[in-house]
Amino acid sequence: MLKVVKFGGSSMADAGQYRKVRDIILSDPARRVVVVSAAGKRKKNDHKITDLLYLCHAHVRYGVDCTSVFDMIASRYLQIRDDLGIQLNIEEDLASLKRQLQAKTVTQDELASRGEYFSAKLMAAYLGFQFVDAADWIRFRMDGSVDQESSYALLQEQVRGEGVVIPGFYGLMPDGHIKTFSRGGSDITGALAAAALDADLYENWTDVSGILMADPRIVENPRAIPEVTYDELRELSYSGAQVLHEGTIFPVREKNIPLNIRNTNAPSDPGTMIRESFDTDADPDRFITGITGRKDFSIICISKRGMSNQVGVLRSILSVFERHNISIDYAPNGIDNVSLVMPTEAIGHCLYTIIGELQQEIQPDTLDVIDQISIVAAVGRKMAFRPGISGKVFGALGEAGINIRMINQGPDELNIIFGVDNRDFASAIRVLYNSFVK
Ligand code: ASP
User: Which atom of ligand 1 is found nearest the CA of 185?
Assistant: First the structure.
């Protein structure tokens, strides 16, 4: 049995968190491959090491002295080491990094990667595990994608049964330079390690007890989702839930490795288990897995009499958006009308040009733009083939006086998506949560 365990920034923030991480790892001999993030925030107004590293690089780029920021970074790691009594010299590595930085010979990616590097060095020494550098096995191609085959083979050569600690977030380009993933990318490192080693489970340890059924800024103390499928998770994150880095799922899903989100600060909570499918149903009465949404969408409504009988109108409309590289999120339609829904931010810069082109090429009877729309999604694999679910959802919203501006549901019935005015966003989510979850 092998579990790959990844600990995020808040789990690596200080000596106290390191102790919790060690207890978690040592409580289960299957937890032998550990991936760590850079130290995150210790409290609300603290700084993440990765942010400070980017800040250092910006200082140097603009010719401003970065000593004070660099020293903040160095002292965070030295303090963790000393608080835990770890015997490891990191002073030399830190001093050489500072020299490189001042000589401007370190790239932004390489500098940003050092947060994870120092975390992993310290954690490896603390646990008595072997340090395996991500630069020694994660291989990017020139286009920035991960070469899974060679990366997996390289990791397999280096992990031989004993415990290892790997820094997250970076790998090596074919030209030998370090490249980082986008922010939050240590999740991907963990997923790649799990896939490379054919792990039985990928545990992703964070500071919440799993994926929550709704945004805690909107719903007070929402429940965690015990079980969610990869498809549901995709729907939840697309519609707004911030869970894992989006590149995380692919490597583990490909190898059918379950993913468990856990809380370092509440290690006995079961967290959220993510799998392709579930054989049994832990909670048969609950048909909604999660409720999520995003604000600030625009709807462009186009109507033209006889449109439904004309071949190619939809294609002409869509090609206008394609020319401007605008991706359309939803396209609900009626007989002689169609509405295109996308984030306002995405269309803002070319809205008037697009309207002009639509007028000219489609010659619609009416063309309206509605702003300040929120999209809300009720996601649940168990909604499929259950009559009456959407009736209940819309009934609850109607009773609460919430007007629905748009409805969208695909034939897989994995979700019910609807648009409301921005001002009704929070109440729509609360109404659904209180009606179907509590
Ligand atoms: N430390 C990096 C960040 O803050 C990567 C990670 O933690 O996943 O984005």
Answer: 8
State which amino acid sits at residue 132. Answer: V
To test the ligand 1 pocket, which listed residue (6, 10, 35, 37) has its Cβ within 8 A of the most ligand atoms? 37
Q: Between the CA of residue 98 and those of 55, 93, 123, 397, what are the distances in Å?
A: 14, 9, 22, 58
User: Quick one: which atom of ligand 1 is closest to the CA of 189?
Assistant: 8
Sign of the Cα torsion 373, 377, 383, 385 reads: positive
Q: Using CA atoms, how far apart are residues 155 and 329, in angstroms rounded to an integer?
A: 38
Plot region of 302 (φ>0 → left; ψ -120 to 50 → alpha; else → beta): beta
Residue nearest to atom 6 of ligand 1 (CA): 184
d(C-alpha 195, C-alpha 434), whole Å: 39
3-state helix, strand, coil in the chain (%, to 5): 40, 20, 35
Q: Residue-wise pLDDT tens for the chain (438 aa)?
A: 999 999 999 999 999 999 999 999 999 999 999 999 999 999 999 999 999 999 999 999 999 999 999 999 999 999 999 999 999 999 999 999 999 998 999 999 999 999 999 999 999 999 999 999 999 999 999 999 999 999 999 999 999 888 999 999 999 999 999 999 999 999 999 999 999 999 999 999 999 999 999 999 999 999 999 999 999 998 888 777 777 888 899 999 999 999 999 999 999 999 999 999 998 887 777 889 999 999 999 999 999 999 888 899 999 999 999 999 999 999 999 999 999 999 999 998 999 999 999 999 999 999 999 999 999 999 999 888 888 888 989 999 999 999 999 998 878 888 999 999 999 999 999 999 999 887
At 272, phi and psi to the nearest 5? -115, 130
Query: Number of helices (H) and strands (E), helices first, in the chain?
Result: 14, 15
* Ligand 1 centroid to residue 40 C-alpha, Å: 8
For ligand 1, residues with CB inside 6 Å are 8-9, 37-38, 48, 50, 115, 168-169, 183-187
Contact 37, 207 (CB under 8 A): no
> Which whole-number Å values give the CA distances from 236 to 7, 244, 280, 372, 401, in the listed order?
22, 11, 22, 21, 25
Give CA–CA dist 120/23, Å, rounded. Answer: 16
CB 189 within 8 A of CB 178: no
